[in-house]
Design a protein that fits this description.
The protein has 125 residues and is an alpha/beta fold. It contains two helices and eight strands, in the order βαββββαβββ.
């Protein structure tokens, strides 16, 4: 096993609002992959599928319930997680843990997204 995680899904109640939030905060596109037969809106984060890159999506549909309790997903904060973190509150989220050093392993921060999910960022600077 190369990675313990190979895919993640972030539940959302308002797909368009969540898509705007994540494309703004992460400065990257989310590709729509709707599943109309199941009445599911699905948007995929960029990832390198050719190199078995870890990917994920936002998903709106029955049974998708955002939460600030439970597992925490750490998204790539880029070269300096201050850049995406600075966009969180501007985009409608709330920073709950500011940029925090974890020593030789870089920096982390946490926020609540527009849907009510607790999400984290990680970067080396």
């Amino acid at each position: 096993m190369t990675n313990a995680v190979n895919w993640f899904e972030i539940p959302v109640k308002n797909y368009d609002r969540a898509k705007k939030f994540y494309t703004t905060v992460l400065a990257s596109e989310i590709t729509d992959h709707p599943m109309p037969e199941e009445n599911i809106k699905y948007g995929v984060f960029p990832h390198d599928i050719e190199k078995n890159g870890i990917g994920g999506a936002i998903v709106e549909g029955e049974g998708q319930n955002p939460t600030k309790d439970g597992c925490i997903i750490y998204l790539n904060g880029g070269d300096d997680l201050s850049e995406p973190l600075d966009k969180v509150e501007y985009s409608g989220g709330k920073v709950t843990m500011p940029k925090t050093s974890i020593g030789d392993w870089g920096f982390i921060a946490q926020f609540i997204d527009t849907e009510g999910n607790r999400i984290a960022l990680h970067s080396m600077s």
